[in-house]
Amino acid sequence: MTAARRAKTPPRPRGGATGAKGGGARTRVERLTAPVEDYLKAIYAIELAGGAAATNDIAQRLSIAPASVSGMVRRLSEQGLLAYERYRGVRLTPAGRQAALRTLRRHRVIEAYLVRALGYPWDGVHDEAERLEHAASDALIDRMAAAIGEPVTDPHGAPIPSRDGVIDETRHRTLADAEVGQRVRIRRVGDEDAGLLRYLDSLGIRPGVVVTLAERAPFDGPLTLTMDTGNCQVGAALAARVQVEHLGD
Amino acid sequence: MTAARRAKTPPRPRGGATGAKGGGARTRVERLTAPVEDYLKAIYAIELAGGAAATNDIAQRLSIAPASVSGMVRRLSEQGLLAYERYRGVRLTPAGRQAALRTLRRHRVIEAYLVRALGYPWDGVHDEAERLEHAASDALIDRMAAAIGEPVTDPHGAPIPSRDGVIDETRHRTLADAEVGQRVRIRRVGDEDAGLLRYLDSLGIRPGVVVTLAERAPFDGPLTLTMDTGNCQVGAALAARVQVEHLGD
DNA sequence: CTCATAAGTTAGGTCAACCTAAAACAAAAG
DNA sequence: CTTTTGTTTTAGGTTGACCTAACTTATGAG
Fold first, then answer.
1. pTM score of the predicted model
2. C or N: which end of chain B has fewer Cβ atoms within 10 Å?
């Protein structure tokens, strides 16, 4: 009754040694473990949404205990990936940020590739990418990117960092912020909730699509959208999760 | 000086929990860890080349200490993947064999895909596949296979198990066994030694190519091969690593 | 300014997968 | 039938990544 107590993902432990011995180009970074890459990604995301990353935020995002975060964060800052003051939260150092962006690039290129080259539905790529991002080499990622024409965003509209860690961090407004009568272009939606993605897809809400906010019911009620393919209504909560670019009305 | 003491592959530990909670279809197998998959693959390969797998053979193939193998083998036989008698070697159970073949399929489909869809050179796919095979879902493997026309062999000529674990285990003879004057078709070469593969490629020795053994120097000397694109000579050691199908003289 | 609460940390523990060194065993050689 | 040899196993240890429980620090309310 001890094992597998809280519906966890299958343990995928140490790297397979399988014939490792000879020349690894250690010119670059020492190749981080999968958990470490996940920590860095999480911290990057938290920093984007507001200053320093708190222990609890990291723990929550990774679904692990806060105590586990403390230890890992100490180790990572000893390795120079994080700047960390006790009780004060963490920030990525330049090295940490670079590593986070490399992982993010992997993740998003993989998502884009699965959709464009292998016909995956856009709500089915997140989990697959979440595993592959730790196993794919940079060379593979570059080939994938080249094969689909060096995409600049993933299928959900998230920007893809360049090979050398440059990313477009423009903050978009959400559909919830738009004025009635405003014409907007859908830019980005969250990639983690598959159900949400399927629903949005059924409504025709995808990055690139242009919609007009026709009406907004009072008291945070549903919004009515006009689009080429017809009208639709979305709740306020959903609207807040759709990032848009305002167009000249 | 303690860390990273013996040029090892980067440790890639437990699975990233990152938002795991809901419905996993546990209809099938419980998803094995990467090391376990490597053990099963190794045991499968050893069994193919001769009866039961000895502890030492497994250890050598995986580049780990024999002592480590004992423990793991006990665990795997408790899980019903291996049939194991102390001091007597191991064999795969049907369940273990099934799991080994699933991993083998992943590996070989990935290799084939990288070459045919992404333009990898055939000597550069092994290591990449070795990592990806533990991360890719069965659904992804099936999509890859479909995208390149359901291949039956990988780029080195190794047979790819079907989705439901059927594999062609025909034993081929090697070039070293052929008689002078014999016409043969290259069927398969080992996939692990990148240098060997590059060399074979430069000679034009690839699966599918037909060659005639024109001459064989005495005392295990080099063989002279006639092929469409010209002649070439190969040493006896190399010839023993090239599997062929004998054609009507 | 004290104190409750929330946030963070330390201490101690588990587990898988490896390791080395030493003991146990099987099989073949004297 | 004993001894040697080589393989296999046991014993005990390490590391990374997690856990729970208990303690510490920061902060906001009275």
1. 0.88
2. N
Sign of CA dihedral A121, A125, A126, A128: positive
> Looking at the DSSP assignment, which residues form a beta bridge with residue B230?
B227
pLDDT in tens, B73-116: 999 999 999 999 888 899 999 999 999 999 999 999 999 999 99
Residue closest to C22, CA→C1'? Answer: B67
Distance A72 CA to C6 C1' (A): 22
Nucleotides of D under 7 A from a protein CB: 7-12, 14-22, 25-26
Q: Which residues, 6 or more positions from B202, have their beta carbon under 8 angstroms from its beta carbon?
A: none
User: What is the rounded CA–CA span in Å between residue B193 and residue B206?
Assistant: 15
Sign of CA dihedral A101, A106, A110, A116: positive
Residues of chain B contacting residue A33, judged by C-beta atoms under 8 Å apart: 10-13
At residue A69, φ and ψ (nearest 5 deg) are -65, -45
B149 contacts: CB under 8 Å, gap ≥ 6:
none
- ∠ CA B73-B77-B81, rounded to 5°: 105
The protein residue nearest D25 (Cα–C1') is A87
Residue with the two structure tokens 């990898």: B120
